[in-house]
Amino acid sequence: MVRIRTTSVLWVAIATLVAGLLVAGCGDSGGSSDTTAEPAQTTTAAPEPPESTTTAPEVDATTTTFQPETTTTLDPWCLEARDWGPMATIPGEYCTTTFGVPFAFTLPAGWVYSDDEGENGLGLAPANTDNKLFFHLPEGSIDEAVAFIEAMDRIEATAPEAITIGGAEGLQLRVRSLTDEDVDFGVFAFLGGSVSAVSILDVAGDTVIIQAMAPAGIIDTFEPKAIAIIESITWKTLQ
Questions:
Q1: Most trustworthy range by pLDDT among 33-42, 60-69, 148-157, 180-189
Q2: What angle is formed at CA 135 by the lines to CA 90 and CA 104, rounded to 5 degrees?
Q3: Which single residue of 39, 93, 169, 207 could bond 79 by disulfide (Cβ 3.0 to 4.6 Å)?
């Protein structure tokens, strides 16, 4: 009869148990984890717009650009009244502010206005030229003004012809200077070597002289421009 020692059996059981535990531990460490780490969320800020380096243009206080101001002292019959100065004007409709017989007219670009003769005289001209368009208020009638011109020396005048400007009737003469020197007879003045178209009108009882003058060599070019202004005239007293 075989006898099994109890102590030997006990040690075998313990060894088997330890081996089983070691195998189980190895199996757990080799498995995959069910928990996965979520990626961290990142927040991207919107880029700020770059600072503008553009600065507003500075206004030059010495600019010579003509900016007319509306005149408030004129009668409403003026379509567009402006304060004028000794510089090229803006083209458009204008009316007189100081001349003794008020009238409106259309002025082209690049002309200069002068009212330094007060209520008895007014001048218009292309800038930087000797061409002139004068308006005068002489004493006396149309016939007296014509006789005065015809009696002047150092000039020659054509026979007067009838003319109508803005509804005002009168006479027109063509006057040529016979000298290289300027001829000045008060209301009438002629540059040396110039030619003038002189219109003398009766405007509601007032005698008005319109003189378009230029050097003889360019009168044919200047006169149509002056005539365009003259033909645009509207007399206030005839409205």
A1: 148-157
A2: 50
A3: 93
**H/E element, 155:** strand 155-157
The phi and psi torsions of 7 (rounded to 5 degrees) equal: -65, -40
H or E element, residue 169 = strand 168-177
Helix (H) or strand (E) holding 28: helix 6-30
Distance CA 57, CA 75 (A): 39
Strands 234-235 and 121-126 come out as unpaired
User: pLDDT at residue 33 above 60?
Assistant: no
Contacts of 156 (CB under 8 A, 6+ apart): 175, 176, 178
Average pLDDT, the chain: 73
- Whether 146 and 171 have beta carbons less than 8 Å apart is answered as yes
- Residue 100 DSSP code: S
- Give this prediction's pTM: 0.65
Tokens representing 30 are 């080799």
Task: Tell me the average pLDDT across 7-21.
Answer: 45
CATH of 92-238, one of 3.40.718.10, 3.40.80.10, 3.40.1000.10, 3.40.980.10: 3.40.1000.10
Domains of the chain by residue range = 92-238
